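Posted in: Protein Modeling Q&A

I'm a second-year student putting together a small comparison for a lab meeting, and my supervisor asked me to include a predicted structure for RNA pyrophosphohydrolase. I've never done this before, so apologies if this is the wrong subforum. The sequence is pasted below exactly as I got it from our records. If anyone can share the structure token output, I'd also love a short note on what stands out.
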Amino acid sequence: MSDPEPDRFAHLPYRPNVGAVLFNRDGLVLVARRADLPNAEGRPGVWQLPQGGIDADEDPAAAVLRELKEEVGTDNAAILGEHPDWLSYDLPPALMGKALGGRFRGQRQRWFALRFLGEESEIRLDLDPHPEFDAWKWVKLDTLPTLEVGFKQAIYAVLAVSFAGFAGPGGA
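Accepted answer (user: helix_wrangler)
Welcome! Here is the predicted structure, written out as tokens:
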């Protein structure tokens, strides 16, 4: 059933957020499958890039490294670049008033391109007692918008263009 008042959440703010496009040495990007939306009924699950909230007075560059450590177990990465604009998305109607503690209409994100400097064994999804992800893999940057990423597809299409110079072996 659809929400009879789709604009009733329009007054809610966007949550400040950072996102990480983490490239390996071959120029592939890490995506992780959400643990709360696992493979079910033949669906591939929902894959996304690591992202998370910015704490009060926290620098976005510091926040992206903190979020990497919290979500994928490592912050062994160097920042390569940053998308020049904040990107925003609204939650789907079914999640409005529920997701993000019901306090936000969506997220306003600062995205960073990073180079992973470590070994794959450093990527650990099991360090948090309630992990956000249950699987991860490396993919080509230009495939991001084609993955099952749900309502984040438009942002991922922007990032695929914005960070194209970092893709492929030896990217900037």
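A couple of things worth pointing out for your meeting: The chain has a mean pLDDT of 88. The two ends are 48 Å apart (CA to CA).
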